[in-house]
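Cast an eye over this sequence plus tokens and explain the fold to me:
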Amino acid sequence: QILYVKPPWTLVNLLKCYKKHWMAVFGYVVPRTLLSTIECLSEHLCTDKPFDSSTVGILLQESKTLLHAFSSRSDYNGVLPQAYAEVTKLCETLGEVRGDLSEDIMVLSENAACEKMEATTPHVQNSGEKELHPSFHGAQENRHQEVWLVLEGVWNTMNLYSIEIFQKLDPSAVTMAAKSSFEEAFLGLQKLLAAVRDIREGISR
């Protein structure tokens, strides 16, 4: 009866309601510090401005954080776990796309290096080594950013699963409904360990 915006709601309406009633209602259900998450989602999702893959990754992680926080109150008739699973799936898809982009960038940078070496070999013999073309450095910089995004994604995933596992291990927080979520988190950590091993081997190589 006192809602800022009456239903039915759009995503924009919901985010407005969150912000309007945060201190009086939602701040008592989830940590009040999550208001920054609401503001982040509102800032990016309530605009027509396009954003890059790194911003998409941030928004997905923020969404997962918010859903996870509300899961401590209720599963909302199964809707919340389903939403969480869908967002997780989107995160995995984004990770795969980033992986493909990383491979493409690596191949492009290697090709650029080879082509530059072939083009400058005769000159190197006569006039010494020359500086690489700026485009090569640009490709390398992009490569570094992609590696950073992968490592950041690993950290965010590890942090999220750790929070979930510690909450589930608290006897007062464990419920039968949460069992599948705990198993999902455990399996996710096994995949994460394998991914970290792969990254470490890659760095070593």
About this structure: Helices lie at 11-20, 35-45, 53-71, 79-127, 134-169, 179-204. The chain is about 75% helix and 0% strand. The chain has two domains: 11-101, 143-204.
